[in-house]
Each structure stands twice: as C-alpha cells, then as structure tokens.
Design brief:
This protein is of the alpha+beta class. It has one domain: Beta-lactamase, CATH 3.40.710.10. Helix content is 29%, strand content 17%. It is built from ten helices and twelve strands. The strands form three sheets. Strands 1, 2, 3, 8, 9, 10, 11 and 12 form an eight-stranded antiparallel sheet that branches. Strands 4-5 form a two-stranded antiparallel sheet. Strands 6-7 form a two-stranded antiparallel sheet.
Length: 393
Amino acid sequence: MIVSSLVAAALLLLPSMPAADPAAGPRPVEPVPPPAAVPVDPALLHRPGTQVRLPPGVKAPPRLSARSWLVADAATGEVLAARNAHRRLPPASTLKALFALAALPGLSPERQHTVSKHELRGIGDGSSLVGVREEVTYRVADLWRGVFLSSGNDAVRVLAGLNGGWSETAREMQTTARSLGALDTRVVSPDGYDAPGQVSSAYDLAVFGRAGLRNPDFARYAATAYAKFPAGRWTYSIRNTNRLLTGADGVRRYPGILGIKNGYTTNAGHTLIAAARKGPRTLVVSVMNPRRGGAYAVYEEARDLLDWGFAAAPHARPVGSLLPPRAALPVSAAAPPAPAPARSVPPTAAVSVATLPDPAGEDGPRLFLPVTFVGSACLAAATLWLVRRRAPR
C-alpha cells in the first residue's frame, strides 16, 4: 500500500516536470560507492536513537532495553551500530577499564607492596571488595587481578596510591580519556563508585575496551576467569564477576569471549564492556543500564549484540569510528591496526541509513519509514520519466 501510494503520487507530479531539465525531475537512485570510498561521519553517533547502515535484506540490530549501547570492530575501530552512543550516564565499575589504561603502564607487575591502614580509607559504603588486608604484602599483579576479577575498590585504592594518589590518578584518567577521543567521560572517583558529575558513555566505554585489548597486560587480566588471591600465609580463590566469561549464575559463557569489565551501582544500574573473537574478527560492545530483564540482562543484551555484529559485520557500513578525531579519517585512509576480513557489500548495493525507534519509547524518533519503500517509488517514477523523455514528440 505504501509503495502504491508513493508511485501514484510520483506519477501525478510527472506532467509538471520540464522534460528538458533533468535537474527538475526525479533522478535514478545513484549507486553507493564501494565501502572504502565512504567517509565516516561522526555526526551520526551524536543523533538519538539507533544508528545503523545496512543493505537491503540484512537483519537490523536487536531491540534492547539498555539506555545506550554500541558494537564495533575492534581491529578497525568501525562502529557497526549504536544507540544513544554519546549519552552521558554513570559508568559504575566499567570505569575501572580507564583506570587500568592510565595506571598499568607505570606499575611493574612484579613490584611488591605492603599495605598500610591509611591506604584503605575512603572506600565507599557497599563497595565491591577483593579482600585487601593491611600489613599484607602483595604483588602489583595480584592487585590488578583483584581489580579485574572481583572489581575490588580496595585494590583500586592501593594501586591508585602507588600511581601517585587518588586525585592524581583521576587527573591522569581524564587525560587518558581525552587522548583516546573519549570526550564524554568525567572522572571523579577512579573506582567507578557513584559520585556527583561522574559520567561516561557507550561510545567512550567501547573506546576504553578497544584500547585495553591492545595492551597485553590489560587483555590478560580482563580474560582471566579464576585466580588465587593472597591473604598473608595462605590464598583463596576469586572468580571473575563477568558472567559471559565464566558462565556462572545461569548465564551461558560466550564463545570466543575475551572478557573486559562489568559494573553495577544503584545510580548506574548494570553496565558492561565485552569483547569476543570469531575467526579473524574481534568485536567490542558496550551496554549501559538495561531497564528490563533483571540483574543479568546486561549479559544477554551484550550477547545479542555480539551475535548480530558477527553476522552483520561483513555487510554493515560504519556509522562512526572509535579512533580519535584526527585518526578518524575516511575508511579508505584509516590504517587498521590488525587485518580484518574484506567486506562483501557490492559497489552498487543500496544502503539504508536508519534511525530506528526507541523500543522503550523514550529516546528516539517515533517514526521510521523503510528506505526500500521510498527507493522503489523513486526508481519507478524515474523510469517513467525517462520513458516519457525518450518518446518521439
């Protein structure tokens, strides 16, 4: 019905179009250039709602309840799809990924440190803890496992002290975020504990995850499912709280999962940065504050994004880039940090640039007209116009 109505409307307009002036009449649908010739437009990711560019016949991203999310190719930095990518929200313990990016390089993993009582002061009420104890000597590597596996705010306190202090670490994290092009993030508490004004975004969290995968120490800690944590003369087992990595609590382990970082606070809700590898492709996703499905919905929504991303990646056209602004050149000019599979989008395939509606009825436009219907109507009108023009007068 929609196609018929549009074609009829186009036919009614044809008689009034001057045959001698092609610019005044409908034009044929222009072929889309090959993927390498299409620049990445950063403005798309600043629009509300879900942004995705797909050729006809390729499945749209899943409809999730999260306030914001993003899925990207970790090798090239190309964003395959996103929803409210730059919406600023509390990040919870996913901010520890930025903490690690800032503090890891300056702290030798073999360095030993005996914790004093004053180093454990200031930890917020209800914080997640790994069990750091005063007068116990730890290796820095042990403390990092406490951060990544148990999301231990006590371990963050000690490492931040070794890194120059709490305030200095917050400033260093802010500088690191800016250097990566993560401009939505404001750091107040390096451990991610709720603090006035502390925010990040799905875009920035994905940037941190991608950068972390390029750091061998970060990647190793983030992918560790189980470890032993020292307690003086004995040790005890700790398990990563990222259920996609461990398969705990009824959440199925994701095939090829590389871990990264999950989080939760009352203000932020559940948050997650996750990455997985399938064949030659690695994807990174970020999910912030699902509003349905309970405590483990963040893992299931990340799973849905990863599944969609691996299926759509050979066909989807980027809607943005995780690279810093000066590095986010047209796709043809951006040198990927690692080999990525060749795209399979034919040069003449039509690509939809869509802003999908918000499934929760809150953040996106309320109307979505399929681009294929409009394209069909325009193509029909253009064909009739060409026939009229070539007909003998």
